[in-house]
Please model this.
Amino acid sequence: MDRALLRSQLERHEGLRLKPYLDTVGKLTIGYGRNIDDNGISRDEAEHLLDNDIDEVESELRRIPAYNALCKVRQTVIANMSFNMGLPTLLKFRNMWSALDDMDWERAADEMLNSKWANQVGSRAEELAEIMSAGEV
Model:
């Protein structure tokens, strides 16, 4: 088989779709015709996606002075939250950000727990709030 020729043909015939869509027989598909319904993704692909997502989250957060002022452990808490809810939603945690500016870790943790997000994610929020408060894992 001529792999390069096949790849070229598939790229042309399947087309690239960067968001999931339903193909002509109703299968959830992405990329160059990857049938997610039947094939899913491999562990390696999932880990590659995760690494890319972490890079993007970190890049977004690096633009925020309050984030840059935090120790690595507290930065990790904020990155975890941003990964989960997206930066626009995380930025709405104004009281938490104010507490972070004041280096009031306990209040920042309380603000994390006093949110709709904490009710939605349960133990995840509790764990992250503990880490935010203590500054260590």
The mean pLDDT is 97. The first strand starts at residue 17 and ends at 22.
